[in-house]
Amino acid sequence: MKKLLNTLFITQPDVYLSLDGDNIVLLKEQEKLGRLPLHNLESVVAFGYTGASPALMGYCAERNIAIVFLTMSGRFAARVIGASKGNVVLRKKQYLVSEDEAQSARIARNFIVGKLFNGKWMIERMTRDYPLRVDVPQFKEASRHLSSIIKEVRECEDLDRIRGLEGQAALAYNKLFNQMILQQKEDFYFHTRSRRPPLDNVNAMLSLAYTLLAHDATSALEGVGLDAYVGFLHRDRPGRASLALDAMEELRGVYADRFVLSLINKKIVQAEDFVRKENGAVIMTDEARKKFLTAWQNRKQEKITHPYLGEKISWGLVPHVQALLLARYLRGDLDEYPPFFWK
């Protein structure tokens, strides 16, 4: 278990949650795994839970401590709360901010600053680690270009302008993506982003990675009581989890893109893992998709030091921590939403 921002994350599978006095107790097959006071917790997030005692749920409901249940893969299952006053206040603030384009832009620009910073870091790391495999002057020029865009985005309070600047940065980044593929270049190449349908092996993998990341972001936002369908950069559209799309922007490159590149460059996926349909769409075989999902779950268990909190957490908890930070900003506990800057 891990306590972050007054939230207890329980990541071990098959754990039963119970109450002992004013403490939450974690049990697995009658063995006590841990015990923690509840008095200073705001929420409990359990992955792959076995269950929770009625006494614990009643205690938490009375004290406005939310209990969030997720599957082991991170899919949102349920959020148990008592009187919903806290949740209502948070969502009302979210809706008010979303209706105000200037306030929305102040949050949206930080999502994009995080995305561009992380993309710049990926570019710089390629020149450091593979100077003989990539066009270093081209990469350095793109890095400088991203730096100038980041400066402009930081000061921008117009949503359309932020979107335009993000588009410019995406073009510069995408021009280099093919060079980041270091192995199996005959079968894995990137010329442009194709979505519906993906038209090559790399786009098929990117689409699946972005879908998984969007699900993780949605679960994280719902877990803290935010409405995943009301965004700030991505505006409302029926059936679209707009805030989840906002929140995943800063993790697209540094998490999803790097994950896809690692599968290719380590030859974990190969050409025979893909099938081209009659309409030109490229899809992964069932066996390859299982391999992809297993690797995704394993990557989520890898430890990093969160750049804002300065604490070691798993990659899988990053969307949840960022969702907590966004909720704190909307409540007025933080002066600004802190983007995820990974290095």
From TrEMBL:
Keywords noted in UniProt: Antiviral defense, DNA-binding, Endonuclease, Hydrolase, Magnesium, Manganese, Metal-binding, Nuclease
Co-factor(s): Mg(2+); Mn(2+)
EC number of this enzyme: 3.1.-.-
Enzyme class name: hydrolase
Binding-site residues, Mn(2+): 166, 234, 249
GO MF annotations, alphabetized: hydrolase activity
InterPro entries cross-referenced by the UniProt entry: Cas1, CRISPR-assoc_Cas1, CRISPR-assoc_Cas1_C, CRISPR-assoc_Cas1_DVULG, CRISPR-assoc_Cas1_N
Record-linked Gene3D superfamilies: CRISPR-associated endonuclease Cas1, C-terminal domain (1.20.120.920), CRISPR-associated endonuclease Cas1, N-terminal domain (3.100.10.20)
Protein family per UniProt: Belongs to the CRISPR-associated endonuclease Cas1 family.
Function, as annotated: CRISPR (clustered regularly interspaced short palindromic repeat), is an adaptive immune system that provides protection against mobile genetic elements (viruses, transposable elements and conjugative plasmids). CRISPR clusters contain spacers, sequences complementary to antecedent mobile elements, and target invading nucleic acids. CRISPR clusters are transcribed and processed into CRISPR RNA (crRNA). Acts as a dsDNA endonuclease. Involved in the integration of spacer DNA into the CRISPR cassette.
Protein's name according to its UniProt entry: CRISPR-associated endonuclease Cas1
